[in-house]
Amino acid sequence: MDLENWMGSLKDVIWNKKLSSIVIPGTHDSGTYCINSNSKRTKLLPDLQCLNPLVGLIGAPWARTQQYSIADQLVNGVRYLDLRVLLDSDEEKFYLVHSFEGGEFWKELEGVAEFVQKHPTEVLILDMNHIYYCNENDVRGMLKRVEGMFGNKLCSPPIPGSSVKTYGEMIDSNQTVIVAITEYPEQDNSKYVYADLKNQFSWLWGSEANVVSPWGNSDDVTQLHENLKKSMAEPRAPDSVHVAQTILTPQTKDVVIGLFEEPSNLEQLAEILNVHLQAWFEEFHKDYNLNIAIVDFLTPALIEYLVNLNLTK
Description:
Blueprint: H1 6-9, H2 11-14, E1 24-27, H3 52-63, H4 70-75, E2 80-88, E3 93-98, E4 100-104, H5 105-118, E5 124-132, H6 136-150, H7 167-173, E6 177-181, H8 194-200, E7 204-206, E8 211-212, H9 221-232, E9 241-245, H10 252-257, H11 266-274, H12 277-288, E10 292-295, H13 300-308
Parallel strand pairs: 1-2, 1-10, 2-5, 5-6, 6-7, 8-9, 9-10
Antiparallel strand pairs: 2-3, 3-4
C-alpha cells in the first residue's frame, strides 16, 4: 500500500463516498512528537511550587503522544491532525501544545502546506479544537495567514442540515483542506466570537458542530471500549465528520504510580491499548461506520490496517 498517496490509490473505491463514510487515520495531539524534559511548560500546568524543577522530568513523558513528526505522519498516511494551539505571550509565537510546548505552529503548518501542494489527491483535516490564550485579533490574524497558505485549497463546511462532500467532489473542486476551530474559546482562556470569524472566513469549520469528537476519558481499556461504542452508536448529523478517540487518558494516579512501575509514560500506556485496536477498528467499521480514528503513538502498521478497511465495506 502506498500510504503517502493512499486516497489517490483508492480513488475508484472512495470517489463517491462522503468524507464521513471514509475510514481516515488520525493522530491525537499531533504536534507533541518533540516534547521532552527540557520543553517549556505552559500555563496549562498548575504551579506546583517546590515540585516545579521536577515537572519536566515527570510530566513531559506523559505529554508526548506521538513518535513521528507531523511531516512523517502525513507521509505515513495520517489525514486528520489534532492541533492544540497556544500563543506564547513571552515569545509572541504560536506553539502546538499538550501542557508543554511542542512544535512551532507556523513551521509545522508550512510543512503541511508543502505536503498539500505535492499531493493533490489527498484530503486533510486540520482540527484546531483548542486555542489557548488568544484574543479575537490573534485568531483573526492566524486565520488570515492560514488562508494565505492554503488559498483555494480550503474547503467550506456544508450548509447546516446538508451533507459533507464526497471525496470526488473535493478533488474535482481542488478543495482538499478542511480547517476547524473550537466554537467555545472560553474553555481555553481565549476570547473570540466564532460566528464573527465564520462571517469573515467562509471556509472555517466548527470543531464541535462539524468535527464531532467525543472524549472517552478513561485509563481503563474495557471502560474506554464501552464509552466508544456508546458514543459511536449516537445519531450523526450529515453535515459533520466523526472522530473515534481510541486513546487512553492518564489520570493523576497513573502518573504517581508511574514513578515506581510501568506504565511510566504515555507511550507505555498507549502500548497497553494499541494491541487491541485492530480488532476494535474492525468491530467499529462493521457495526458503527467508523470514520476518523485517532491514536497515540500511531504506527504505519495501524495506519495501513485502517486504510485497508475502506476496501471491505
